[in-house]
Amino acid sequence: MWSASASVGAQNDGAAQAPSSFQVRARKIEDRPGDAKYILESLALGTSARSFSGMPHPEFPNLTVLDHPLIRHKLTILRDKNTTTRDFKQLVNEIATLMAYEVTKDLPVEPVDVDTPLERMRGVRVAGKKLALVPILRAGLGMVEGIAQLIPSARVGHIGIYREHDTLEPVDYYFKIPSGEEARDFFVLDPMLATGGSAVDAVGALKHAGAQRIRFLSLVAAPEGVRRMLDAHPDVPIFAAALDRELDANGYILPGLGDAGDRLFGTR
């Protein structure tokens, strides 16, 4: 039988290497009975899914950059200084929805029986308590609706933090989240991960309240913010649509997209 794993292995010149995800997928298929059509279709599905998945960043093990073509396309329009407030809001919603597919791919599921119009069957549903979306006010609010459209049962909390103008350090002013903290998955939302001060503070507050499973979602991240999160909360994965170059002297991400809050709400 034709062997995909053998073909891939030939490219490694006999060197002992850890199997790639493609090799593992191919081997599993070969070990399972089935005809050649099934094998080829399964391999095609496996490589197609892999090509659009985010991969952990080589420098930051806590960061996954989601580089789907639609995310990259919409993010480019979002960055444009001529994009209107109306379009900016819509684009933030759309990018957040696209990101949610990747961020939720490993949520635990449990079996459930349902009655279709024709017969009873067993399906699955997401296990445990409802997800909790926790935007960091105010810019994080722009990401809530896009994810809630995909997960309408999600609960929503709020964390109020602003960045002090001179020191660039976070100042807390509001905290309210759904109950059952220890049993929920929390998605912290903030379009910009710049210095990382607000992100570290928000995640710390959630942990203090009892949250154990936390993920951080941002549209654009700076290396400084990702590194600060890695130092403070190495157990919290970060998902971003882009990792930009650096921060300027005022703590803004370069090239960035400006002040996300001002552009979302039409303020200055």
Poorly predicted residue ranges: 1-53
Terminal CA distance reads: 65 Å
Level of helix content?
Answer: 25-40%
Shape: globular
What is the domain tally? 2
Question: Quaternary arrangement of the chains shown?
Answer: single chain
- Gross CATH architecture of the largest domain: 3-Layer(aba) Sandwich
Total strand count, please? 14
CATH topology of the largest domain: Rossmann fold
Radius of gyration: 21 Å
Note the run of SSEs as H and E.
Answer: HHHEEHHEEEHEEEEEHEHEEEH
CATH class descriptor of the largest domain: Alpha Beta
**Strand percentage, roughly?**
15-25%
Give the number of helices: 9
Averaged pLDDT: 81
Q: Find the structural class using helix and strand composition.
A: alpha/beta
Biggest sheet statistics: 10 strands, mixed
Description:
- This protein is of the alpha/beta class.
- It folds into two domains: 48 residues, no CATH class; 211 residues, Rossmann fold, CATH 3.40.50.2020.
- The protein has nine helices and 14 strands.
- The N terminus is likely disordered.
